[in-house]
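tool_call predict_complex ligand=NAP
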Amino acid sequence: MKPGGHTFLVTGASSGIGAALARMLAEQGATVGIVARRADRLEEVLHDCRKHAPESRMWPADLGDVELAERVALEAWDAFGHLDALVNNAGIPKRREVTALTYDEIEHTMRVNFFSPARMTLALLPKMLERGSGWIVNVSSVAGRLGNLHEAAYSASKFALCGWSEAMAVDLWDSPVKVRLIEPGPIDTEIWDLPDNDDPLYHGDKVPPEEVAAGIIASLETNAFEHYLPDMKAVIDMKQADIDGFMAGMASMLPKR
Ligand SMILES: NC(=O)c1ccc[n+]([C@@H]2O[C@H](COP(=O)([O-])OP(=O)(O)OC[C@H]3O[C@@H](n4cnc5c(N)ncnc54)[C@H](OP(=O)(O)O)[C@@H]3O)[C@@H](O)[C@H]2O)c1
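tool_result ok
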């Protein structure tokens, strides 16, 4: 599928990957609905999108509230008349060593990164099936395929999104609704600097969010379910081949207590 003439709902579009994706989709002729908490930042993205796609709209909403997430999905469907694609991109980091994590932090991370995408998907899936077409694009992370140090809650939420997407794609195999799983590596966005998180342990290179946005759009023209952006699949393959060796390597990177 090429974006032109199609309607996308993109969550987490006030910054980073989601903002880049919304702008790129609109430039390529798609109408976009954008969702996030910061209305001022959404306004800026919407302004750019409307230069190319005047019907584009925004829904300021906290997707930590899963019932609100469902309402936004249904409102967007009604406002546009249908949605061709739901891109579950909104996400929060949770960089916290496991002994310092609280249950509330884990639950909140799960709500934003997993329950809300699942809830929005369940709301739209019957409509897409009835209409005879649809795309669900879930933005997980390489941390959804390997347990990142000091990111137990974040990894759990992204593993959940990976498992959900994979099983859902099998259930929908013969249906007109297609599922895409996106696993970004280190991308240069605000996620690394957000408050209420430990300092990042990773200080290597980061890829611009536009590269991931372009990769998401390209994923819609392939038959492949899973897309590592950038391509870090070799790291995941290495882990699968020797999980104990992989974990020992990760543990060697822990700061000294
Ligand atoms: N950057 C990376 O290295 C990297 C790596 C792997 C995966 N990812 C994933 O990529 C996705 C996009 O992240 P990003 O890197 O582009 O970071 P970002 O710039 O921080 O973007 C995150 C987006 O999610 C939105 N969001 C966060 N909490 C929300 C909430 N409760 N309700 C509604 N929207 C919410 C944010 O908007 P508001 O703050 O305005 O609500 C923002 O638009 C996330 O799912 C992230 O886990 C990123």
